[in-house]
Give the backbone structure.
Amino acid sequence: MAAPSRRLEAWLARLGNDNAQGEYYLTDVVALAAGDGVAIDASTPRSADECLGVNSKAELAALERRYQMNQAARLLEAGVSIADPARIDVRGTLQCGRDVAIDVNCIFEGRVRLGEGVRIGPNCVLRNVSVGAGSEVLAFSHLEESEVGERCRVGPYARLRPGTSLAEDVHVGNFVEVKASRLAAQSKANHLSYIGDSEIGAKVNIGAGTITCNYDGVSKNRTVIEDDCFIGSDTTLVAPVRIARGSYIGAGSTITKDTPAGQLTLARGRQVSIPSWKPPKKKG
């Protein structure tokens, strides 16, 4: 209902509750407006759902599900494959290219664009995200304010936080978190890593357990990894730091200084074995 605000105030003051429910009905304003000679226009709803009332949380949930089913029907009509139309939530705008497939229990918030041939696995949340053609987002992944290039593979259980940008053919695997970082073409971080405030070049391999230490308690600092680098498992990169092109970082290293190009860099504590050591024993 739309009404001129200056006249609406007077009509509301004239509403009565002389009815079986003892309630004030906003729709009585129409009769008051007609009695005052105000022109009234009516429009026909596209669906009966648009005219349903909501008087309880249960009715609100039922109406929301009707709305989501309509969204699913629109996507299906456009050629999108949806595993179960009853288990998808579109809480914004979802734009899909050809041959897109969406599995169950996925939530799309804000503005989301899926390119041709994109596959979204079950239980994923995408918020203000674009996903390039041929890319796949596997189960239980959360993507927010991010860009995913073509032919990428994200997840399962991956998290892309705001400011993340993946070029083409990038892999971000299980339990990998990326924030405010760019990964160039064909780079991979497949397991259990944190990449924050970083510039990752092309064809970089980031081993399992690698983290960028980007926060010093006051400021966020940048990590730069140039093209063709290999970062061994369980590496800690203490920003600000630059890993030069073609560097190899040995597993278990803590890197605090820039590395030279094309060389192997190790930064480990010396391994020591103590032959006289004995394990502690419980008393009693």
Remarks:
- The radius of gyration is 29 Å.
